[in-house]
Amino acid sequence: DRKIKIAPSILSADFANFGAECEAIEDQGADWVHVDVMDGHFVPNITFGPAMCAAIRPHIQGVMDVHLMISPVDPYIDAFAQAGADVITAHVEAGPHIHRTLQAIRAAGAKAGVALNPGTPANVIEPLLDMVDLVCVMTVNPGFGGQKFLDMTDKIRTLREMIGDRPVHIEIDGGVDPSTAPLVARAGADVLVAGSAVFKGGSVTNPQVYGDNIRTIREAAEG
Ligand code: DX5
Ligand code: ZN
To answer: Is 36 labeled as catalytic in the residue annotation?
Structure first.
């Protein structure tokens, strides 16, 4: 179904309070929790790993959507699956064997996602259309929250055409807010990651702001 899902990224959350933050965004309407794993090698930033995913798992009732900005990917797939990741997304740019990586993610029991950086064309996923449950279109260069949105409308439209009626989500990641959400939804996206646009101005002691931000993005996307 192409119902819009909002997936707040905890990269913009309080790093000293992840469990409470996950509960707060879910209470305030988040559909998925987007977990940005960074290794300081594939991207110029370091966040957290499988142990943190396992720690927050009990605080997430819904989908834990793990975005691996790491290279290599394969040695860590089982650890993230055991930590409770429902979706594990790997970057096509992270190594030479994305086909094998996606097989390994599904073999580990998680749904498989493939992420494309802004410089990577849509057609690279041609051979992977039946290997993935999700395509993540980066609309920023990965590594940080709060960056400026890069318009990937044509790429999203091309992907939606390639996917056809396969049950594959198109997830948009980076710079999503009430002004950019309608563009990507109209082009065919159905999962919208948002970090700064959800967490800005709120806190676990003032979570209503999260709810307002999530609602505003959702309403903008649904038009
Ligand atoms: C960037 C991450 C994104 C980021 C989104 O490398 O993959 O998920 O946290 O943050 P905003 O929504 O603030 O651009
Ligand atoms: Zn992400």
So the answer is: yes
Residue 10 φ then ψ, to 5°: -75, 5
> Residue 91 in contact with residue 102, Cβ under 8 Å?
no
Peptide bond into 44 cis (omega under 30): no
What Å distances lie between residue 87 and 16, 65, 207, CA to CA?
A: 24, 5, 25
Q: Which residue has the tokens 């991207």?
A: 43
User: How close is the Cα of 11 to the center of ligand 1, in Å?
Assistant: 7
Closest C-alpha to ligand 1, atom 6? 142
The complex's ipTM? 0.99
- Rounded mean pLDDT, 2-7: 93
Tell me how far apart the 2 most distant CA atoms of the chain are, in Å: 47
pTM to 2 decimal places: 0.98
**Strand runs labelled E in 28-144:** 32-38, 63-69, 87-91, 111-116, 134-138
Which amino acid is it at 1? Answer: D
